[in-house]
Amino acid sequence: MTSPFEIDFDGALIRGEAAGFGIPVVFLHSGVTDRRMWAEQMRQLAAEGYHVISYDRRGYGETETSDVPFNHLVDLETVLDRLSVHAAILVGSSMGGGLAIDFALEHPNRTIALVLMGTAVTGAEGYDVDEEVEQLEEAFEYAKQRGNISTANRIQAHEWLDGPYGEAGRVTGPVRELFLAMNEIHLNHAPLTQEERPEPAFHNLSVITAPTLLVVGELDCSDIIAIHEDLSEELENAFAVVLEDTAHFPSLERPDLFDPILFEFLEAVTGQGEDDGEDGDD
């Protein structure tokens, strides 16, 4: 069972949770969810003896913040420092993956490994957005500008949870309910207008040497898949996987596919969980 924590820092009360005492694994949520998207992976890895950590970034979940100057990278550094974590494995989804990449560039000695799922990259250039995605994003902006948060939320569920190329509502049940609940908080949050962004990572990716697992769903947006493919070529120590019949959130939609790949990668990186062999027969 995880324990909650609060960190009072630079005009924000950052809320998160942690469990375990082993090798640190920090989970970073996407731009349309919050830390709850990683609850099942947190639970399982804590049981395996890892020190698991997740938190809600400013504008998401339970974290409270004023509209003050801030930097998500500095916030992440502060969370690790306050929890006495020198180095960690970073597991990031979408914008959380972009944050993990930024951290790896800024603090290579604090980055044990990276797991990047449907990742963004700060400063990414030259990736075309196709017509289906453009239509959904235009519809989202139209609904949001008119204050129709419920409709805007459903449009983003279509784009990111279902995938933009099929029917809305492909993913049902508790996963859809959780997505809508997480994204509703973000959509209703007061705008944060003073974010300070780190240097773009896009042209510096080749310097990252940490072992990296790249995961993307085959139903994700074409530009996200293209970034995934380019990262698999650019990062010298990367292992790339495309998961069938999933969109932007394989960890939520198909944990039966995502989790074994994650756990096998962590075991390979850390040696934790390996079979030490049985004693000889009596």
From TrEMBL:
- The record places domain AB hydrolase-1 at 24-255
Q: Which UniProt keywords apply?
A: Hydrolase
Q: Does the keyword Hydrolase apply?
A: yes
Q: Which InterPro entries match?
A: AB_hydrolase_1, AB_hydrolase_fold, AB_hydrolase_sf, Epox_hydrolase-like
Top-level taxon of origin: Bacteria
UniProt GO MF annotations: hydrolase activity
Question: What cellular component terms from Gene Ontology apply here?
Answer: membrane
Protein name in the entry: AB hydrolase-1 domain-containing protein
